[in-house]
């Protein structure tokens, strides 16, 4: 047995008092969970501690909290593991973020999480005619959505979402991952309608800032941000949806500028994101409005010599031979039809066996083995140093 | 140390002072930069969002070019977003021999081949892991005494931790603070250090994007930071270039200078602020920091 001190965030809206910190020292084996620690504190010291839990085996998704500032399932975090992140030797436990607190560690999932999940029509809209018995779909067609299906609705990703922190209306990672579960399902009849809805919503798929917080937070490897990127890809590429939020235009302008110049040309990217993928975009009304609102910034940038008029008007470009290579790569890869596409998802495919080894090759040995003595760089970073063996690859 | 150097696009576009300051700092640290001037844009996650295999192939081409640089110990970048976007592609390429062969087939047309296991490190990682903080400390000529610096990591260089190789042995999410200390500065803790600057949605939801930047800058102001330092030029665009608009979005005066990592290192190594391009920033570092007493002569 070992002693651990837990610092719990307490709050009871009915008391009229402000939230406060409460410390209890509990006694448990280090491999027991933080949840067990909280339950012991409740049993021994204070029966009024509020925590929601059920299965205690990381499958019901009830006990999402923040441990030392990071979202996690309390039942899925060992005490010794939590101690590593404890700043002053005390394990700090708070309710999840981005949702109102009902009491102590219990947040109002209905007010935020479930409301957003309902927003994406989280059920199958059948293709007609409905078969007499079950739908038959090929195994390969469903395998990609299993990552979204692994979601246990714990809200850890919602808790940490940085877009939602500033824009509470953002549909958010959990609900959008759920949306992909149906957009990726061949039995669903309304892919295009779903995507159009989520692309046109100013708080939809293009409101994600790509911060990776949800990928890091998810205890089940769902990688909600990756699902949002899939939604964007399918929306623009396969359904040709041009949204009112400049999302698709930005993506196309970016991709095509790199095709045409090899490097990004920021001064040209901005007007095209607003006005469409053409050199003339900058003279259109949408780009004009944006230009006007950015004038103070543009003026200062020119004044300070940060941006020169020539630098803005002229693209930096790769040497011709290299640009031709880049264009050939575009032609080859963009030219593949749907059946030829190779879109690797490591959550589904896993890693090659040599990377899965419990210990992995020591980086130095791998480097020595792979280098041909020419001072090359092969091998130095193999072995995925951060890949913890008990965690499934999440992307 | 010889490195295959990938500066990225923005460091040669809207933040030229980043590429410029890196070129000034490198010789003082005995880093020989062999610029990958044939490599293409990393895609910043946007090309991958459009077509994953396209982004993977373009970056595999960059990696292959880096592996051709004779005598280079590794590939070095100065942009967190390049680091994150390239590491994501590299993770897929390194994870599957089948996929790697598929991508190499496209590269083969041009006589290029990517060999699994490239080491690609941001300047920040290189400082700590390759050079070492003791070595860095020994080269400091003008310690940043009394300078209160808030680290701004951004997203791409700290998440996801397993992909980026961040663990107990390599606590890469603490390196910025370690470097600030090694340069003699004081680390300021504030809420925004690991948050998103908002840049990726500046064209999609400008108000939210600017509010994100404004909020983090405001948190740093409240904690008494003199300036922020970031390894990401895209964060720099939202935090510095857009700061006048971010001030309006959060309705407060911020006036928070934001330095690129090589600039901060350069100041401590004794370079003049002007050589490091500090006068090109939108928020002039002089407005807050009295460089004449705390670091070096005024900008």
Walk me through this protein's architecture:
- The complex is a heterodimer of chains A (395) and B (299).
- Chain A is α+β, with helices and mostly antiparallel strands and 395 residues long.
- Chain A has 4 domains: 106 residues, Beta-grasp domain (Ubiquitin-like (UB roll), Roll); 129 residues, Alpha-helical ferredoxin (Fumarate Reductase Iron-sulfur Protein, Chain B, domain 2, Orthogonal Bundle); 80 residues, no CATH class; 46 residues, no CATH class.
- Chain A has 20 helices and 7 strands.
- In chain A, the strands form 2 sheets. Chain A has a 5-stranded mixed beta sheet with strand order 2-1-5-3-4. Chain A has a two-stranded antiparallel ribbon with strand order 6-7.
- In chain A, helix 3 runs parallel beside helix 8, helix 12 runs antiparallel to helix 13 and helix 13 crosses helix 14.
- The longest helix of chain A has 15 residues.
- Chain A is globular.
- With 299 residues, chain B is α/β, with parallel strands linked by helices.
- Chain B has 13 helices and 8 strands.
- Chain B has a 4-stranded parallel beta sheet, sandwiched between helices.
- In chain B, strand 5, helix 8 and strand 6 form a beta-alpha-beta unit.
- The two termini of chain B are 31 Å apart.
- Chains A and B meet through helix 7, helix 10, helix 11, helix 12 and helix 13 of A and helix 2, helix 3, helix 4, helix 5 and helix 9 of B.
């Amino acid at each position: 047995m070992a002693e651990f001190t837990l610092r719990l965030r307490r709050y009871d809206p009915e008391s009229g008092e402000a939230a406060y910190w409460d410390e209890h020292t509990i006694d448990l084996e280090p491999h027991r969970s933080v949840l067990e620690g909280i339950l012991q504190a409740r049993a021994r010291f204070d029966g009024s501690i509020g925590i929601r839990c059920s299965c205690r085996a990381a499958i019901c998704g009830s006990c999402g909290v923040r441990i030392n500032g990071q979202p996690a399932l309390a039942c899925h975090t060992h005490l010794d593991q939590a101690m590593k992140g404890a700043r002053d030797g005390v394990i700090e436990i708070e309710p999840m973020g981005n949702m109102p607190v009902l009491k102590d560690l219990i947040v109002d999932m209905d007010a935020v999480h479930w409301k957003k999940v309902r927003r994406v029509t989280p059920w199958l809209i059948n293709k007609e005619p409905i078969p007499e018995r079950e739908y038959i779909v090929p195994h390969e067609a469903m395998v990609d959505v299993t990552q979204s299906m692994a979601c246990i609705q714990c809200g850890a990703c919602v808790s940490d979402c940085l877009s939602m922190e500033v824009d509470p209306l953002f549909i958010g990672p959990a609900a959008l991952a759920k949306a992909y579960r149906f957009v990726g399902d061949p039995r669903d009849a309304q892919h295009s309608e779903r995507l159009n809805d989520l692309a046109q919503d100013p708080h939809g798929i293009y409101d994600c800032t790509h911060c990776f917080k949800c990928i890091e937070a998810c205890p089940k490897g769902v990688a909600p941000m990756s699902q949002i990127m899939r939604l964007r890809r399918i929306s623009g590429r396969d359904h040709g949806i041009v949204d009112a939020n400049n999302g698709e235009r930005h993506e196309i302008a970016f991709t095509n500028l790199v095709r045409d110049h090899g490097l990004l040309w920021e001064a040209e990217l901005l007007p095209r994101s607003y006005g469409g993928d053409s050199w003339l975009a900058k003279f259109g009304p949408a780009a004009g409005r944006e230009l006007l609102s950015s004038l103070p910034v543009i003026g200062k940038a020119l004044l300070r010599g940060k941006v020169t008029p020539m630098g803005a008007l002229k693209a930096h470009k790769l040497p011709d031979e290299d640009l031709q290579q880049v264009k050939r790569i575009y032609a080859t890869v963009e030219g593949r039809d749907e059946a030829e596409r190779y879109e690797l998802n490591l959550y589904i495919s896993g890693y090659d066996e040599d990377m899965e080894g419990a210990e992995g090759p020591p980086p130095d040995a791998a480097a020595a083995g792979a280098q041909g003595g020419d001072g090359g760089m092969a091998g130095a970073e193999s072995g995925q140093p951060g890949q913890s063996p008990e965690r499934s690859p999440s992307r | 140390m010889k490195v295959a150097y990938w500066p990225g696009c923005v460091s040669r576009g809207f933040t030229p002072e980043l590429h410029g300051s890196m070129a000034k700092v490198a010789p003082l640290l005995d880093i020989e930069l062999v610029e990958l001037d044939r490599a293409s844009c990393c895609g910043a996650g946007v090309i991958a969002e459009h077509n994953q295999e396209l982004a993977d192939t373009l970056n595999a081409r960059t990696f292959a070019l880096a592996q051709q640089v004779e005598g280079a110990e590794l590939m070095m970048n100065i942009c967190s977003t390049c680091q994150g976007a390239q590491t994501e592609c590299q993770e897929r390429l390194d994870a599957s021999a089948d996929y790697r062969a598929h991508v190499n087939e496209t590269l083969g047309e041009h006589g290029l081949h990517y060999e699994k296991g490239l080491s690609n490190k941001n300047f920040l990682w290189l400082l700590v892991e390759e050079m070492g903080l003791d070595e860095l400390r020994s080269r400091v000529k003008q310690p940043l005494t009394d300078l209160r610096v808030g680290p701004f990591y951004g997203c791409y260089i700290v998440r996801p931790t397993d992909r980026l190789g961040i663990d107990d042995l390599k606590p890469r999410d603490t390196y910025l603070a370690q470097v600030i200390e090694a340069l003699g500065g004081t680390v300021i803790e504030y809420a925004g250090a690991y948050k998103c600057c908002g840049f990726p949605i500046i064209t999609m939801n400008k108000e939210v994007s600017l509010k994100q930047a404004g909020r983090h800058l405001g948190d740093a102001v409240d904690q008494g930071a003199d300036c922020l330092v970031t390894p990401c030029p895209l964060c720099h665009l939202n935090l510095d270039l857009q700061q006048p608009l971010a001030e309006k979005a959060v309705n407060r005066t911020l006036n928070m200078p934001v330095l690129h990592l090589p600039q901060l290192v350069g100041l401590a190594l004794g370079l003049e602020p002007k050589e490091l391009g500090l006068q090109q920033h939108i928020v002039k570092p002089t407005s807050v920091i009295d460089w004449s007493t705390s670091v070096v002569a005024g900008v």
